[in-house]
Amino acid sequence: MFVRALATLAYLVPCLCKVYEDVTQLPGLSYDFVIVGGGTAGNVVANRLTENPNFSVLVLEAGVSNEGVIDSIVPFFFQNLLTPNIYEWNYTTVPQPGLNGRNVGNPRDGMVYTRGSADDYDRFAEVTGDAGWSWDRLLPYFFKNEKWTPPVDHHDTRGQYNPAFHSTNGINSVSLTASNWPIFSRHVIEASKELPDEWPFNLDMNSGKPLGLGWLQMTIGGGMRSTSATSYLGPEFIRRKNLHVLLRAQVSKLVGSSHANGKLTFAGVQFAQGGALFTAKAVKEIILSAGSVGTPGLLLHSGIGDQRALTDLGISTLLDLPSVGRNATDHPVFSLGWTVNSNQTLDSISQNATRFDEAFAQWNRSHTGPFSAGGTTHLAWARLDSQLASNNFTDPSAGPNSPHIEVAFTMPHCLKLAGSTGGTAGQPCVSAGIVVLNPVSRGSVTINSSNPFDSPIIDAGFLQSDVDVFTGREAIKKVLKLFKAPTWRDYIIAPIEDLENLSDEELDEHIRNSASTFFYLIGTAAMSARDARYGVVDPDLLVKGASRLRIIDASVFPFAVSGHTQAATYAIAERGEFLFL
Known about the structure:
It is a single chain. The protein is α/β, with parallel strands linked by helices. The strands form seven sheets. Strands 1, 2, 3, 10, 11, 14, 15 and 26 form an eight-stranded mixed sheet that branches. Strands 6, 18, 19, 20, 21, 24 and 25 form a seven-stranded antiparallel sheet that branches. Strands 4-5-7 form a three-stranded mixed sheet. It starts with 18 loop residues before the first strand and ends with a helix. Residues 291-305 form the Glucose-methanol-choline oxidoreductase N-terminal domain.
């Protein structure tokens, strides 16, 4: 990828006047609510709590400002955030036996907006015993989050989405991807017409019934990426007098423990900045929104977790909660690719300095063109009922409207994931990412030191279950048939890797050698019913056995949703804030 000039975009991002980078700038260190983590969920909670002028809120964020970060502004550049950079923790997993001993990264970034299936949330409600987590009860919170925005190219969107399932009154922009690849898009949609039984067209995959093939929706507005930082902490909100955000503040543990009414409570949190330690006091509640890695790590270093493991590390156990850090779940992904006889591909831009500069100049002028879209154009979702049943596997999905696999039709280019060849040099190609949506395999996030600034141990548990490998194998067969539809005949030249004649054992080995993370680790502080003897939080997201300590982020998911995690995290955060009332 060619280097971008940061200076040309500095004017695009408004000044975040109430975001501080030095603890000495804060008016004090005592607040009603202290939120640990200024990510997708934490910023939602901060925004909603400070709608009440009587609440004071401090957000402690370990990272740096998003202001002027071109890779976070231009949708096309999101892929630069998926490689090691200063905006990520740059964690990697331990060697994964299911991936033939490979380590994989743990980035958490993306713009795809998919809610999953209604079945997913109905399963949340069943497991927690709280009907408030059901699809029907959560849908208003999806709407509360979403601000539907016309695509920046203003193309005719009739027949590409269903307005009935969207809201224009929310905060975070959601839009259809700009139509920059008409030839490829035409073939994708035509394939659904030619194979209607296997891949029916789905007008809107965010209706709660995602099965089928349809147009992608992303968190983009006006040709720019829409994040919780630019939306929920936008200029009209960040100026609130009762909202303070401190950057470069890495929280190490909860402090000031005591007991009240038989429950553990903490007075505040300890955080580091500039080599010194500080304590922020929370008068009402501490909210952990540090994500599926950060949140369990904070709990463990604060003495909340498996007593035996904590004792071995010399950490005093304040609350024996063995489920902390367990149930880690992530979607394995791998790709297929084909060379094509069309020059209307992303490679013609990314591998050509002149065309790259022209596309970037267009985006600078009008926020249109190839750089106004993310990495995918369409998505398809399918079930494997007959395949699973014939091999005596129990259905791992949440219900009959939930897909087993996702197919991501990436912008036409040579997608390269771990272990794949990534295409032939100089030859245009197209790619499809294949995702195992309901992994049975489970991993963990643990610690091996009492030093809270040491890196955690991340074990995603990829492909440890036979059904996950089987699902991946059958997905390959199904997608190969999809790309044999008549519409592709004069477009596709040849597969980049010939998998069609491989045995099942060879396909399994291919999957283990090429699968990677889909960036959606969840479940490490999962919610469960109030009387359950497992889990980390109750249905109100309060930590079991504790008071005034709540977790609101993707770590509370008891199961992965059959889609991308962003939209679900927004909805859970919107409802999570409601639980304070």
